[in-house]
Design goal:
The protein is α+β, with helices and mostly antiparallel strands. It has a domain at 127-243: Orthogonal Bundle (Endonuclease III, domain 1). 43% of the residues lie in helices and 11% in strands.
Length: 336
Amino acid sequence: MSRNMFSLVPLPPFRLDLTVWALRRRPDNAMDRWDGQTYRRALLLPIGLVDVAVTQVETTETPRLQVSVKGQPLGPDVEAAVASALERLLGLRIDLAAFYQCFARQGQMGQLARHFRGMKPPRFNTVFQSVINAIVSQQVTRTLGIRLLNRLTVTYGVAIREGDAAVHAFPRPEDLAELCPADLRQVGFSQQKGRAMIELAKSITEGDLDLEVLAELPDEEAVQRLRGLRGVGPWTAEYVLLRGLGRTHVFPGGVAGARHNLQRWLHLATPLDDVAARRILERWHPYGGLIYFHLLLDRLAEAGFLRPVSSQLQTSGANSIDFPDALFRRGRTDGT
């Protein structure tokens, strides 16, 4: 193995491809790069800026990841920092044995769990990034939201260069704190969203706010703290609980696309509001967030973003999707 490479062993089962798609959500995502075999991400860590490449080299049931690092010499501190970031981003240490055991006895939801076996619930690598993602995604399609995040990252994120190419890490609070809403307006954000993002960044850089301490709070208190921030309502707070704090019992029912995916999968004729969605999901507590991610993958498969392969490759370490053709119905993916 090269001196700039090391291995990680996720808790099985694990599928890198499924997990990366649950993280990136759209093929337009320029931060979470995926070529069908390798996941790449620029990360600005306490040890410095690195560009990380991850490939799965063993099977779903005996997974092993090969990780390469550029930008910093690979010593023990760099390896530990990169491993910690990837464990959070890709959910490598999350044990889903109880989830699979529960859903083995289910009908429709059991089918989802079997089709997407090996997906681990991903998280953004900071709570700050999850709040920015949620604010950007308000009242726009998911595709537009991803493109706006790309612009924000390319414009204000720190770059790592290799030859003529450059990739950017997601902006830090200090990268946004001294901007004015007019700056973000040029990138495509409304005055209201720009103000909320800058105010959030400035509160962190000035020491008035530490979003990471939310991990120590119960759901209700964390939501209350989040709703005290400009631009954060109840659905945004729930989204942050799931994607920023990794609380996989939380289904973001305030997200219309999430409710629509649930309604569609259960073949319900009547659209679901937040209350109805929560009532339905009570039978599957505490797995609401895992259901959200599985429904997201089903929607992406329907849109044709996930590539089918022969079943033999499922056990050979290949990182492509193996589903019945019936899962590949074309459709809209806005709102996932």
